[in-house]
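Hi support team,

I submitted a single chain yesterday and got back a structure, but I'm not sure I'm reading the C-alpha cell output correctly. Could someone confirm the output below corresponds to the sequence I sent? I've pasted both exactly as they appear in my results page.

Thanks,
R.
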Amino acid sequence: QVQLVESGGGLVQPGGSLRLSCAASGFTASRYAISWHRQAPGKERELVARITNVGSTTIADSVKGRFTISRDNAKNTVYLQMNSLKPEDTAVYYCRAELPRNYWGQGTQVTVSS
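Hi R., thanks for writing in. Yes, this is the structure output for that exact sequence:
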C-alpha cells in the first residue's frame, strides 16, 4: 500500500540547517508530484515546496532562498533541505503525494529555538 514516512526533524538553533526525508513506498515517487507542507500550532497547514514528476519545483515565498526540494529516484525519497532556519519555521512538516488521491505522511516535528 502507499506509504510516506518523514524523518529528519528535531531541535535546531536559529541559523541552523536540517534535511527532512520523505521515504515513499507502494508507488514510484518520480511519477507523481510530491510536496512538503507544514503546520504550526494554531495555524493552517501551508505548502512549503513541491516537485513535479518532471522535476519542476515550487518554493513558498516565505522560505525561498533558504529551502530546497529534491528527489532521489533510486531511493524513492524526496528531501527538503532547510538552511538558515528561523523560529517561525517551527512546525510539524508533512509530505504529500499527489496520486489519484492525496496521501500524507505522519509528519515530523521541527523546532527552531535557542
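A quick pointer for reading it: The first strand starts at residue 3 and ends at 7. Let us know if anything else looks off.

Best,
Support desk
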